[in-house]
């Protein structure tokens, strides 16, 4: 997924642009982005919480 940069002068404009960007993404794109952010923040092997809940 390519990185996108959008510079604004007001917080309201930035929030509106962020919402519009998320609305144009498919669910698969949002899941890929969330997975990538998870990998960047928590490196190493970490099980998916949903899988842990299913095993209970």
Question: Would you give an account of this structure?
Answer:
This protein has 56 residues and is an all-alpha fold. The chain has one domain. It is 64% helix and 0% strand. It has three helices and no strands. The longest helix has 15 residues. The radius of gyration is 15 Å and the shape is elongated.
Key words describing this protein structure:
56 residues; 0% strand; mainly alpha
| Count of individual domains | 1
Helix-strand category:
mainly alpha
Helix percent reads 55-70%
In DSSP terms, counting alpha (H) and pi (I) runs of 4 or more, how many helices? 3
Principal-axes shape call: elongated
Largest sheet: none
Distance between the termini: 34 Å
Order of helices and strands: HHH
Strand content: under 5%
- Report the radius of gyration as a whole number of Å: 15 Å
Uncertain regions spanning at least 5 consecutive residues: none
**Beta strands, count:** 0
Average predicted local confidence, pLDDT = 85
């Amino acid at each position: 997924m390519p990185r996108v940069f959008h510079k604004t002068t007001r917080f309201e404009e930035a929030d509106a642009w962020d919402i519009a960007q998320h609305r144009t993404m498919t669910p698969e794109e949002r899941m890929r982005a969330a997975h990538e952010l998870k990998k960047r923040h928590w490196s190493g092997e970490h099980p998916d919480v949903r899988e842990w809940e299913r095993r209970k």
